Amino acid sequence: MNKKLILSLCLGLIFSGLALYLAFRNIPVRDLVHYLGTVNYAWLIPVSLSAFLSFILRVFRWKWILKSYKPVSFWGAFHPLMIGFMLNCILPGRMGELARPIILAKREKIPFSTGVASVVCERLFDLICLILFLVLSLSYITIDPALTVTVGKYQLTGATLTHVCYGMAKLCLALIVGIILVSIKVFRELLANFVISIPKYLVFLSIQQRNWLETKVFRPASRLIEHFADGLALLKNPGKILACLGITLAIWVVQALSYYLMTFACPGLDVSFPQIVTVMVMICFFIALPSVPGYWGIWEAGGIFALTLFSVAGESAAGYTLINHVVQIVPVIIAGMISALMIGINFKQLFNQDSSNV
Fold first, then answer.
1. In whole angstroms, what is the distance from residue 326 CA to residue 258 CA?
2. What is the pTM of this model?
3. Is residue 347 part of a domain?
4. 153, part of any domain
5. Are 105 and 215 in contact (CB under 8 A)?
6. Has residue 350 been placed in a domain?
7. Which residues constitute the domain of residue 267?
8. Who has greater pLDDT, 309 or 86?
9. Average pLDDT over residues 114-119
10. CB 86 within 8 A of CB 55
11. How many Cβ atoms from other residues are within 10 Å of residue 173's Cβ?
12. Residue 203: inside a domain, yes or no?
């Protein structure tokens, strides 16, 4: 394991450990165990099927994005996608995001940079939809203004969450404007050149330090801008962008449905669909933080915090979040492992090779 993976794992352990402590410190273990025994586990079947359907939709979205460069079959996209998500669940540093374009390059002869651009494009659409869902759900639901949720030394109130809602709306608008600007070649080149030139203005640093920052930080950031643009360029026209956005909306609606179906299995969860959408989005934002493989701890902290906003008891929130977490990731891990066996992936060789030469 290289130094970057070790650092990523260490940061993940710290964040996950802290998140687990904050999430479960006020929940008696005996009450939680008793609650888990009252769950109707028959509901796990439709929940798992609904969650897996969202990944099928992801396959079709990825196929649609890649189509502008080269048509890819369903299975040609399915295997790399499931392997990538499986690796995100069992390895630190979200290595699955790198594995997908590598596998795609090996099996479909699509350049690694194009594969990376397609993944970046997917994440853009996911982020836009999640922010949109959060804004809409928080605008629709009613949160008690007197509600106070304690997280560590901090207290969040209903007014705080309303402020967050408006902040997210502004962020969504800024993100859309930024995407439009980055898609314009002249602006993109100006932005990339500016990013690369930043170290020159850091006169308080030594020449060696500025050179290191340029090589290790700002030039990669400049290339990331190009990857964003390349990902959008794969869609070629507004019609394809709208189609991709429509598939993305379907992905997250189906994902939210799986979260909602899980509430019928768990006693004490009288929450509406818009409320469970808010829970899902908050979990997604929480797991964007560094964490151990599988997002353990961070996922639970996000779910318990979000459900507390809707007056769900601690043991019910913890039980729901734990079971839903397992149901959401175990099918992905199984499907990813089956895909890896079917196409004969050697993970050691996969990550040891120079991806730039793939």
1. 13
2. 0.78
3. no
4. yes
5. no
6. no
7. 28-182+235-342
8. 86
9. 85
10. no
11. 12
12. no
